[in-house]
């Protein structure tokens, strides 16, 4: 059974259909990429799936439960985690605290335990801290653990967001342009990391502009243009699809045709 | 902040509280010290609300008013012991904060500032206008805590100033300890996370409205206890305690000292409580000098006094 099932999802801003009638599925261990030109609606789609935006039409199901428009923190409890295209780092907090925030669901308890620093809270926080340090090692940020996050480089912050998203121990991970602004070496590292995560059974939904990366690691690709799904399939099929080539290169005859559709 | 930093902050605070009286030229300064601690207590509450959770309130004097008048009214009308009246005031403030916080914490930035401002003004108007109950603008007497005479019977003679210096110092230490515990706890991290990015905080599972409300309620209880202590030590209270200027004073102390840090907030409270005492020589220009100090600090040390100084010292070491 698919873990994430998106059916006919759509949203309009003003009169503009930013996303319209998009459907696809993601299974555990599968890497599904959403690609498309700038402004195609990829991030908007992500925001609807992760509960940041209320979808206007369609439905989202997670593990068989309908979760359309459910708040992000409830989705997090159900195993959905994400990163952001425009970084959403807790800038004033240390790198370690950023990842610890990702452990919120496993370390939270009563507010009294927190105020009085009771042993139960300390134990949960210590477990979270041990996990967070491991995750920081995994994304090679362990040496920066005590630094204020705002001081890190862009590439490092991208990795920090992935570590924070992994701290939730998600069943499905939504990555919004994880390799944007990263150099070739960093991109390759992210490539390996994503493949590893998928191999461990996590479902991955990826938005990425780096076509080489997408073609290399995706099991399935969904192509958006002007908010609509214009093609989907495995990397080889999608890369040969004339509508996809047209969307990316822009041929004069075909552009209006699928803009209408 | 790591666990070590917490104990350093508390240690510094405890040593200062214990040793300062050695430098007091007269008994009067115990009174000033106790006032500093009371102000610092409500400012530590604001550090949780503003510094941790990033929410503003211009109405927290309202909660100080509830705490103060609980200590004035409950012993008289309900026959409660003043110490229990303080607890009652804290509970009422907490419940009140939960009730009004729920709708108004949806607001952001200056909208929230105006809404909290409204609450503060409301409390202050009730206290001023319900003459039959509160004595109106003239204020009312507050029953004695009774603890000092108890200590005297046990053979420990303390002046009023000494007694309140001690009580307020201990309560401030407890308040600072709780706030520092919270900083490095799951709730504290959730508050600081939503301060940084609400959307990211909610995607890691933080119930953002709930955590905001927590910070609001906790800070209201701090203000309430501070108001109670003020009423009890003065033996008298007027509606000024709930007034708008008192709210502004609290926020200014927090921002001046450094709103992210418990120690900084205490420092800010100390400076703004002491300045008027020092400035009595320039009585006519007191407000002017105060205003000028604040403007200069905000321009040159926007992080607040203590964090800016700490950063500068650190920079020199490296």
Account of the protein in words:
The complex is a heterodimer of chains A (261) and B (318). Chain A is an alpha/beta fold and 261 residues long. Chain A has 2 domains: 4-79 and 170-260, P-loop containing nucleotide triphosphate hydrolases (Rossmann fold, 3-Layer(aba) Sandwich), CATH 3.40.50.300; 95-165, no CATH class. Chain A has 12 helices and 10 strands. In chain A, the strands form 2 sheets. Chain A has a 6-stranded mixed β-sheet with strand order 6-7-8-3-9-10, sandwiched between helices. In chain A, α3 packs parallel to α7 and α6 (119-138) crosses α7 (154-166). Chain A is globular and about 60 Å long. The two termini of chain A are 30 Å apart. A two-stranded antiparallel ribbon of chain B has the order 1-2. In chain B, α2 (28-52) packs across α13 (262-278). Chain A binds chain B through residues 50-52, 71-73, 75-77, 81-82, 84, 88-93, 97, 100-102, 104-105, 107-109, 111, 113-117, 121, 124-125, 128, 164-165, 167-168, and chain B through 178, 181-182, 184-190, 192-193, 195-197, 199-208, 214, 218, 260.
């Amino acid at each position: 059974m698919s873990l994430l099932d998106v059916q006919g999802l759509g949203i309009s801003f003003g009169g503009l259909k930013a996303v319209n009638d998009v459907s696809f599925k993601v299974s555990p261990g599968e890497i599904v990429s959403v690609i498309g030109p700038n402004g195609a609606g990829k991030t908007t789609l992500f925001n609807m799936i992760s509960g940041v935006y209320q979808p206007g039409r369609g439905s989202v199901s997670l593990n068989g439960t309908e979760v359309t428009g459910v708040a992000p923190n409830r989705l997090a409890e159900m195993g959905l985690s994400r990163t952001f295209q425009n970084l959403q780092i807790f800038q004033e907090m240390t790198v370690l605290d950023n990842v610890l925030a990702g452990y919120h669901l496993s370390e939270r308890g009563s507010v009294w335990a927190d105020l009085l620093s009771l042993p139960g809270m300390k134990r949960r926080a210590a477990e979270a801290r041990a996990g967070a340090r491991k995750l920081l090692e995994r994304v090679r940020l362990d040496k920066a653990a005590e630094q204020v996050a705002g001081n890190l480089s862009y590439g490092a912050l991208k990795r920090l967001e992935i570590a924070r998203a992994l701290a939730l121990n998600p069943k499905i991970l939504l990555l919004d342009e994880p390799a944007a602004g990263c150099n070739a070496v960093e991109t390759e590292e992210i490539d390996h990391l994503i493949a590893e995560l998928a191999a461990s059974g996590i479902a991955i939904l990826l938005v990425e502009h780096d076509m080489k990366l997408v073609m290399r690691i995706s099991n399935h690709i969904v192509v958006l243009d002007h908010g609509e799904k214009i093609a989907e399939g495995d990397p080889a099929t999608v890369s040969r699809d004339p509508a996809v080539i047209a969307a990316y290169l822009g041929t004069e005859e075909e552009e209006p045709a699928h803009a209408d559709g | 902040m790591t666990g070590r930093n917490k104990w350093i902050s508390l240690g510094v605070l405890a040593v200062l509280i214990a040793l300062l009286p050695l430098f007091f030229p007269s008994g009067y300064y115990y009174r000033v010290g106790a006032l500093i601690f009371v102000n610092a207590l409500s400012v530590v509450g604001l550090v949780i609300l503003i510094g941790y959770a990033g929410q503003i309130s211009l109405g927290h004097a309202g909660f100080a008013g509830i705490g103060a008048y609980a200590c004035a009214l409950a012993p008289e009308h309900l026959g409660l012991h003043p110490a229990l009246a303080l607890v009652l005031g804290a509970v009422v403030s907490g419940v009140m904060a939960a009730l009004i916080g729920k709708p108004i914490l949806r607001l952001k930035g200056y909208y929230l500032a105006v809404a909290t401002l409204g609450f503060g003004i409301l409390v202050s108007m009730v206290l001023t206008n319900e003459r039959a109950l509160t004595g109106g603008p003239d204020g009312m007497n507050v029953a004695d805590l009774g603890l000092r005479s108890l200590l005297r019977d046990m053979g420990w003679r303390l002046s009023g100033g000494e007694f309140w210096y001690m009580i307020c110092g201990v309560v401030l230490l407890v308040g600072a300890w709780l706030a520092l515990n919270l900083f490095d706890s799951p709730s504290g991290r959730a508050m600081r996370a939503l301060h940084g990015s609400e959307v990211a905080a909610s995607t890691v599972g933080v119930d953002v409205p709930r955590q905001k409300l927590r910070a609001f309620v906790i800070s209201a209880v701090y203000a309430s206890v501070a108001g109670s202590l003020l009423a009890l030590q003065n033996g008298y209270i007027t509606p000024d305690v709930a007034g708008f200027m008192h709210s502004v004073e609290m926020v200014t102390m927090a921002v001046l000292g450094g709103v992210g840090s418990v120690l900084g907030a205490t420092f800010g409270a100390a400076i703004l409580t002491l300045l008027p005492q020092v400035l009595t020589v320039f009585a006519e220009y007191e407000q002017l000098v105060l205003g000028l100090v604040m403007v200069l600090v905000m321009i040159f040390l926007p992080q607040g006094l203590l964090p800016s100084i700490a950063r500068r010292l650190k920079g020199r070491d490296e």
